[in-house]
Each structure stands twice: as structure tokens, then as C-alpha cells.
Amino acid sequence: xxxxxxxxxxxxxxxxxxxxxxxxxxxxxxxxxxxxxxxxxxxxxxxxxxxxxxxxxxxxxxxxxxxxxxxxxxxxxxxxxxxxxxxxxxxxxxxxxxxxxxxxxxxxxxxxxxxxxxxxxxxxxxxxxx
Length: 130
Fold this sequence. Notes:
8-stranded antiparallel beta sheet; Pyridox_Oxase_N; 3 helices; Pnp Oxidase, Chain A; alpha+beta
């Protein structure tokens, strides 16, 4: 079922705030999908998925190429959601701090990394059953 990412139902937002891991799909240079498990935070105010990572990671390098779409999928039994949109990589301290805070609120405080960056996905499509 498609949802309007700018007006998600209460139960969808609640599911996005429960503690679940997800998969992140980015595209490799050859066009094939790169799928990895991730923790993520959903910012309902601005329609962003935020993922912390480190600069040399494959997912970060895939996003760094620019203009790429990405998808985060969360599954819990029969409930599932996929959030899609254009991804960008940021090393801006405020953006990275927001991603770390979102991760810490949902999972746990991550360890420090000097090479930490954040992937932000501006969500324009939400599919699923929450």
C-alpha cells in the first residue's frame, strides 16, 4: 500500500519509531544493488531518513556519486515499510549530529568515529503495511 510521505498515518510513524533494524539499498557503479543491514532514524518533521556510517564505506561511496536513489526497508513479521528517495552524503557537523542523535534515541549511543558521515534520504515514496 502506498502512503503519502508528507502525511503518514499515526501507526506508520509509530512503526518507524520502534526499535527495528532495516536494510539500505544503494546502487553500485555498475547499476547492481548493494544491500546492507542498518539502523536508521526517521525525522517525520522534514521527511528524512538518517543513517550514520563512515566515509570509506561502500554505501557512503555509492551515495557520494550523487543523484542516486536509495531505499530503506524495515520488516517485522507481516508489517513492513520501504522508504525511498534521493540520497545524499553529508559530513556537515550539524547533519551528522542529527543523525547520531536519531540513532541514539532509537538504538543506543554509537561509539565515536573521526570519519563519521551521514546518509540522508529525502523520502518521496513510502510503501508497505504497518
